[in-house]
Model the fold of this input.
Amino acid sequence: MNIVMFEIKSAKFLKGAIGGEGLPQDALPQVAFVGRSNVGKSSVINTLVGMKDLAISSSTPGRTLQLNFFLINEDTYFVDLPGYGYSKQSLKFAEKMRKMIMWYLEQNEKKPKKVILIIDGNVGPTKFDLEMMELLQENKYKIIVVANKMDKVKNSELSKKKKGIIEKLQTENIIYFSAKTKKGKFELLEKIFD
Done:
């Protein structure tokens, strides 16, 4: 059996956009990364591209304040969306971020070809994650669920955590990932680029 390894040869930050202003106008496919604040979206992107600081990650929730476009292999965009569900910003600002995410996923003319829904594997799916999953399903997106931070789960709790995630999200199509150990990296790349 021949195993094809998907490799990212080039990755660069192209631009940050707020709403419809400044979105790339070409027809390259977009892959969106969405998840709660501080779930590790930027860290997942950095792990996939093999760079420490392509996407700016922070321990402060709510650092991504725009739609960040990264050009991957000159033929695909990774789009890092602001986090939802929590931010150290005001409620008004958090609502503005929520509206930007909703606009991108629901009204944007250039719909992403896939959406990577990142959850915290240690915490499990939250109410906000379940709402996002429902929204993505309603809009008929190809969804790849990534349970990040699996390195924080004790081995003795692993099967229980996985079972809980599957039951809540009602899917077994989940990649168990660790940005720290790079577990799940090649499986996710394969699903993104297949």
